[in-house]
Amino acid sequence: MKNKTCLVTGANTGIGLATAKALCKNGARVIVSSRSKEKAMRTMDAIREELPDADLDYALADLSSQREIRKMAAGLKNSYSKLDVLINNAGGWFSTFALTEDGIERQWAINHLAPFLLTQQLLPLLIQSEDPRIITVSSDSHFHGKIHFDDVNLRQNYHGLRAYAQSKLANVLFTREFERRKTERKLSSYAVQPGLVKTDIGLKHTLSLHGLAWKIRRLTGKSPERGAETSVYLAISKEVGGISGAYWDKCKQKNQSKKANSSEDASRLWELSKEMCGIDTYFDG
Ligand SMILES: NC(=O)c1ccc[n+]([C@@H]2O[C@H](COP(=O)([O-])OP(=O)(O)OC[C@H]3O[C@@H](n4cnc5c(N)ncnc54)[C@H](OP(=O)(O)O)[C@@H]3O)[C@@H](O)[C@H]2O)c1
After folding, report:
1. What pLDDT, on the 0 to 100 scale, is given for residue 285?
2. Which of 65, 171, 193, 199 to mutate to test the pocket of ligand 1 (most atoms within 8 A of CB)?
3. Residue 78 contacts by C-beta under 8 Å, 6 or more apart in sequence?
4. How far does residue 183's CA lie from ligand 1's centre (Å)?
5. Residue of the nearest CA to atom 17 in ligand 1?
6. Which keywords describe this protein according to UniProt (predicted)?
7. How many A from CA of 14 to the centre of ligand 1?
8. Which of the following is catalytic: 58, 80, 158, 164?
9. Does ligand 1 lie within 6 Å of residue 200's CB atom?
10. What confidence tens digit (pLDDT) does each residue in 9-24 have?
């Protein structure tokens, strides 16, 4: 990964931190994206403690805010001439319904629209790479998901699990529709299932009962390092360069859900996401 630059969102903890570390070990320059400078600094210190020569930089954005996503991408476009790998890893799980500053339900905004918009904003840098890769961390939860086109914000019928599964299904649909619509052949997109991983995702914004359920569930989970393996494999492997648009688990392609195979939903979601992000032309904007 020498001379390759990778951006990892949500790199300050959990799977994202393990991904960033592994990419550094492989010699890449890694930009850790976090929502505060303090968290980014702590992350870089933690990585350098283990890997003193790690080539690190940071970029800041609260990914629930489209304004901040655009600002972070603009900063990166000023500082860098290319980006080889974008890992859309950041994600959240929220027990209760709330809207972001853009008037969008939080899981939909952070887990789906943020990867959709950040990828689009960084396309000018990605297309400067010889082998640009976009890796979006989804989940097998997408098998239980459905896109509620009549109410994606789930204003009428919010449940944390429903919102999470919907957003993770959107990650898979986005990945395959990106492949279908892309205008540059070399751009590759991958959706990843990290498996059940022992992180704090289910403790941060959850009611106590949901937090307890996550504490029990994650007991059987794998380490963040193991959870990061497929993302890292897709970032560095020479074999996967040409395989794009698929769903991956344990460093292998895996069948996605039936709903994720719907071309009609993929196309409809793309148009809806463009509208929700205020994008006119995705690839040439
Ligand atoms: N853990 C699992 O079993 C599992 C299974 C399947 C898929 N996943 C997926 O794996 C990814 C990583 O999750 P994880 O388990 O490693 O959880 P985690 O430890 O909670 O990490 C999530 C990361 O996303 C960041 N993030 C959340 N909301 C953000 C926002 N508004 N702006 C900027 N950053 C934000 C977090 O930052 P803060 O620290 O500031 O909150 C954190 O760095 C997620 O996409 C998740 O859906 C996890």
Report:
1. 54
2. 199
3. none
4. 30
5. 201
6. Oxidoreductase
7. 7
8. 164
9. yes
10. 999 999 999 999 999 9
**Catalytic annotation present for 164:** yes
Closest CA to 253 of 188, 166, 163: 188
pLDDT tens for 155-188 read 999 999 999 999 999 999 999 999 999 999 999 9
